[in-house]
Amino acid sequence: MIRSDATWNGFERNVFYLNNRDGTFSEVSGVVGLDFIDDSRSFVLADLDHDGRLEVILKNRTAPQLRILHNAMKDIGSSIAFRLQGKKSNRDAIGAAVTLEVAGLRQTKYLQAGSGFLSQHSKELFFGLGKAEGALRATIRWPSGQAQVFDNLPANHRIEVEEGAQEFRAQPFAASPPSYAHGSEPQEVERLPLSVETWLIQPLLAPDFSLPDLAGDTKQLHSFRGNLVSSSFLGHGGAILRQPTAASPEASGRLGLAQPSRSLSQSR
Questions:
Q1: What is the dihedral of CA 18, 41, 11, 23, to 10 degrees?
Q2: pLDDT tens digits along 168-196
Q3: Cβ distance 85 to 67 under 8 Å?
């Protein structure tokens, strides 16, 4: 299965949920184009082109092993990002909390190390502002216990703050290339396979042994070499070895096993 790049979770599609802002979520995977049938294992969010909009990076077990989905949505409102550097605290400011207030609304995000299975989101903290207008106020609580407040922050900027510094550095988000504003042609829907087969990576050779059959005659496993042999495991600990035939798949080559077995074998 590994070499054939087959699925391990039955072509289960990825899901993406939209926050309805009323305590509920809507499943919109197909609408936004994230319902891939890849065997995805992790994802991260990062602003790869520094335009203030987060891209999605998917890591899959099957090919393609990496998908980078560029965020080209229009009219998604304003945003602001924070990049923190600790001094008394750890350098990456892991554990810091940033609370953003605007137009009577408050959001809090925490800077964490590790955000999922074998993955790490960007260490920049992004806040969506939507259509909110008014002065932006940020409160930063550092792991050392120190708290700092910054008023009148500019929207659509990346704010760089060093622990203990009274000033901050603001950089405007980069403009997105015009080509990203045009949607691409719709992709053909990936169809699920009609049948799925499972194969061992390498044939499993069984050790040779001899057993009496139901008639009392001793048979050796190597006598079936070159033929298919099936094993039926019984509830009381025994097993029956069958050699299928064209006339009667159940009729010939039956061997009664005195010892219970847990493995399937093919004689070669």
A1: -20
A2: 999 999 987 666 655 566 667 667 666 66
A3: no
